[in-house]
């Protein structure tokens, strides 16, 4: 098979790594890819939002399967563009990708179908939102409705912070058009857990759990980022939590989307909060999480192509999804200053160290080749250093040991990824 992967981050590198292991695949392309993905794939200079060019390339190269990694093209309708030309593509169509594309839609869906979530109100005018804040309880959560690179959520401890938050989202357009509509949500306390799943429109198969670290600084301080590290499995995702979610959240979401005429095929990412009142949905994503994919996919035993094709063909019930009985931890190496401002173009040294190390991975997020063919930094999140271990503590120790193999100017990371493991 010939496979095309669309995207350029650590998630797409993890997907490429999994696809490269398939005995069914002999050629991988990635558009636009990065310096790490180039190890497995021929990178093509086509942007993820250039739908016409992507479709033309897939037809020209006779691509057998295209895998969409990113949220923007999914929400924009890239799957519809491929399907209109009779091309096989993995991911939800535009009608289904709204599950991530609009937080207001997903909250209304959960309310309509009694899927547990935080209390909320949707607003399309700042005046009404500000009025609502006068009688609200604090802390409170403000969410830009649309896509905002995983950063469109503000937790406000006081009314004054919330007023400033409304202004920044809806008036100053901090997150662009994503803030035209806003969700104001009750603040939930508990443990956050990420659960990825494969969906074929009817059947849902749950992957192993994971847990992300969104804040830029140690101790969950600083600004929200796209994710500074993650671990899998989560010790807080117990058998009881799993049984509750299977009964009231997972299948209920798939059935709700089908009932709305938005049949979902692809990945549903469930962001959960384990509260005193039981698990509740924080958010949905319509694709692999980043960096969750970097700890979940290396632990998956199945041939990923079999799973992708089952989702497309509606035969996921025939797949026995299996994961290794171990653990993985990913520590993101970022450029100092991320997520605000940072320099790029620094040479990255030590990448070759990973080539002969079983159970260690370095997933490229923001890298490129310079004019001399050297791999240099090209983003805020640069690399995801992932390691396995027999349990979470060993995996964490291995991952932090592996971060020492890599060197580049302005290298920055959190030092407490997975520290919650010690408290479990």
In words, what does this structure look like?
This protein is an alpha+beta fold. It has 4 domains: 2-93, Rossmann fold, CATH 3.40.50; 119-186, ATP-grasp fold, A domain (Dna Ligase, domain 1, 2-Layer Sandwich); 191-318, ATP-grasp fold, B domain (D-amino Acid Aminotransferase, Chain A, domain 1, 2-Layer Sandwich), CATH 3.30.470.20; 327-423, Phosphoribosylglycinamide synthetase, C-terminal domain (Glycinamide Ribonucleotide Synthetase, Chain A, domain 4). Helices cover 28% and strands 28% of the residues. The protein is built from 12 helices and 22 strands. The strands form 5 sheets. Strands 10, 11, 14, 15, 16, 17, 18, 21 and 22 form a 9-stranded antiparallel sheet that branches. It has a 5-stranded parallel sheet with strand order 3-2-1-4-5, sandwiched between helices. Strands 6-9-7-8 form a 4-stranded antiparallel sheet, sandwiched between helices. A hairpin with a 2-residue loop joins strand 15 (265-275) and strand 16. Helix 7 (126-133) packs antiparallel against helix 8 (159-171). The protein is globular. The mean pLDDT is 95.
